[in-house]
Input
Amino acid sequence: MSPVDTQAQPSQPVKLRPGNIQLDPQGKLRHFLAIEGLPKAVLTKILDAAESFTTAHEHREKKIELLKGHTIANLFFEPSTRTRTTFELAAKRLSADVLNINISASSSSKGETLLDMLRNLEAMHVDMFVVRHGSSGAAHFIAKNVPPHVSVLNAGDGSHEHPTQAMLDMFTIRQHKPDFPSLRVAIVGDIMHSRVARSQIHALNTLGVGELRVIAPQTLLPAGIEKMGVQVYQNIDEGIKDVDVIIMLRLQRERMHSAFIPSEHEYFSLYGMTETRLALAKPDVIIMHPGPINRGVEMDSAVADGSHSVILQQVSNGIAVRMAAMALAMRNPDGSSAS
Amino acid sequence: MSPVDTQAQPSQPVKLRPGNIQLDPQGKLRHFLAIEGLPKAVLTKILDAAESFTTAHEHREKKIELLKGHTIANLFFEPSTRTRTTFELAAKRLSADVLNINISASSSSKGETLLDMLRNLEAMHVDMFVVRHGSSGAAHFIAKNVPPHVSVLNAGDGSHEHPTQAMLDMFTIRQHKPDFPSLRVAIVGDIMHSRVARSQIHALNTLGVGELRVIAPQTLLPAGIEKMGVQVYQNIDEGIKDVDVIIMLRLQRERMHSAFIPSEHEYFSLYGMTETRLALAKPDVIIMHPGPINRGVEMDSAVADGSHSVILQQVSNGIAVRMAAMALAMRNPDGSSAS
Amino acid sequence: MSPVDTQAQPSQPVKLRPGNIQLDPQGKLRHFLAIEGLPKAVLTKILDAAESFTTAHEHREKKIELLKGHTIANLFFEPSTRTRTTFELAAKRLSADVLNINISASSSSKGETLLDMLRNLEAMHVDMFVVRHGSSGAAHFIAKNVPPHVSVLNAGDGSHEHPTQAMLDMFTIRQHKPDFPSLRVAIVGDIMHSRVARSQIHALNTLGVGELRVIAPQTLLPAGIEKMGVQVYQNIDEGIKDVDVIIMLRLQRERMHSAFIPSEHEYFSLYGMTETRLALAKPDVIIMHPGPINRGVEMDSAVADGSHSVILQQVSNGIAVRMAAMALAMRNPDGSSAS
Output
């Protein structure tokens, strides 16, 4: 009769592989919490699924009934209209019902614990949680505490990971330059505080990128970054020489007050992307940014809106990649993969 | 030409039975405002309909197109994310369109009266209002002022009634112990201020429960409660002796400040549910709570999460029971029952 | 590779007629920004489409799958629950997905420009923007900056126009009095600040109304109003003599503080509609108001709820007219008309 007992003893016993809560016993995606630890085959499967959704959209099959009758709850502990909107659109295009839970308004006001809130949403037959949280590991904690038929997608946790953002970047790169081993990629900006950068580095290494560079001032580089399989450049003009792909990170303006960088003007002159600077990269370089752009800080408008920019393609691909992650992670009532 | 005239003279004349606005001339559910006054046959019909939706869900028929094209408006004058969410999910699973109206934000800002707001929503072809309000009788007032094709569900009005909550409790009891006449049931806690308790007492009596007890300190018992067909206990150890079902009420923390109870600690020691205390009831007793639980005040966690608890089943059943109430109360344009 | 280039060179080149961004080369509705400049044939087409949706609703075809898979974003820079709700219901009845964007919460917090926000929403495959803004010309500005497959509906811009409101008024008039050339119509109230009045005057003149009067105190009449093809009355008893249709405008209470009118009481005695006053018009006059009514300021309740009032029919018609505008303006990916 106890819900805890029920959850611990599902009709179909599911054993997670030790050390990787993200995969089911068949090696299929169960939760999508981090790029770190996922094999190349799983990443490729996400990219392939996203491609099929992109093709479907071009053929005017805008509505896909794959998740009809499933309920997805957006649990955003950190507000982000932009990211929530992309997950909401992805869920709706798969015909799922979407529940947006305003955490501050709902749970805390009546003194409910996080686990009680999860138990209640599960009891309402919510099938998937999309979690954004200011603390690293929050989505992982939730994933450890859901029953076998519920899956969890990480929409950004602290400075840890933001795996769907990284995968939409991989998808965008693959559209233009499908052979990862032959690519030289540079990530520019606040590596230290960026969950996006951490996810990108893991994804690019897992997909076998030829060479991966990070470009940042010393104050924005985490200690021991070299161990992540990257080459470090503090000089951007050296760092972007002959690269195929440049990924600009967003500069959080609040860093300024913490004295990580001297001023926006100074940052732009040292690390901002201009057309002159861009000419140092390969002639067919593509330039990416997770948005929203601080024009005149990370890059000038000529670059953001120029012929090398794929920034808006990233946004479009964000819908397809989130549809892919949702479709692959969704579970049947017995905990088996629904797709 | 006048909308008032139009509404007063529908093409199919509908006469409400004197004294019971909740039923149509055929005795079918028209509004769901209160348990009091509804015959046993109607309550049983709601339970049976809820059962069919539960079965449908187990068979993966998650989406039912019964209310496709109908519009349901949640009018929440009192904020409650939790209750609104269950009504919203119930409506979506029946394929209805849902409109969440934030009352403070919409009506009052432009000085619109409540009746004008209702008239406008009806003119937009809203078919059903789900109403939650801090004043007793609010849903009843609205029901008296809607045209024949619109129905009203009460989602809690002041300290009057909360009929869908009571019915999900009845449904949960019936799942475990279907023979009401043989049951001994105890309701524990703040009877005086609880609209849930009022609805439960009416429902249990209508369904013919064998014996009904209420357990509370004198300060939390309404005057004349004995006339509602209950036996009163102030000592919980005596009150739960040999009962089949225990329903704990939620303690509103604001009561503390009003000196109804001395302290949370004192309340827990006198009325809180522990495993030791639970052993006084029947061996197969089930324990219920409307949520969210104040752990360590109304009950300790060992009971809340223990083998006798059916608390999360109540939450699941809340969706099915609300689907049932919506499906049964929905009207055709001529005011006849749509189901 | 640049999104700007891509958007500027669609596969099917689309050239807008000089001077009228609202029509496509075939003369079909592309954006709906203002009544001014639209030919009678387009207005009539909107009315005819609205009529077909009204008929469909009466035949219980509540859900129409015309825009299934399309996404409509409500961009409300000025809050209006009422207007947003009618657009949202219209979109849902056409089976479109709806995105409500809270502008203050989303765009400005991260310093994103309006154009960047639009580009991002377009990249997420939003097909239509419904725009409400406090500045005149805002919807027009946005329409000039969207790619060929995206269309824009004006839901009110400053004191410029509110075209869907005017068209629902035309639709309501046509239901009761279909022969515009034979009609005498009076608009009463704050002409100067009313975008609704501006749109109504253009619509009535384009549809060939017999005689159009505006009735207001000197302080609420814009300079040069006579050039818009109206007759001006400051005395309401003279102005409504023998009219077929009276359109009351809503009085913004904030005007009081700006000394445009002396007091609500004074305004009601000079311009408020009473049954006595109404007797001066034709015996079968209809009286209209965009809502919400200030009872006792613009009209008394006997008129608002009386047999000449068609105010709630206006609200119902608002859904059908917005469905019509959405269906007609929606584009295919190549920029051609989707309907």
Summary: The first strand of chain C starts at residue 71 and ends at 76. Confidence is low (pLDDT under 50) at residues 1-18 of chain C. Chain C has two domains: 3-161+318-329, 163-314. The interface with chain A takes residues 1-5, 68-71, 97, 99, 101-102, 105-106, 110-113, 116, 119-120, 122-125, 333 of chain C (CB under 8 Å).
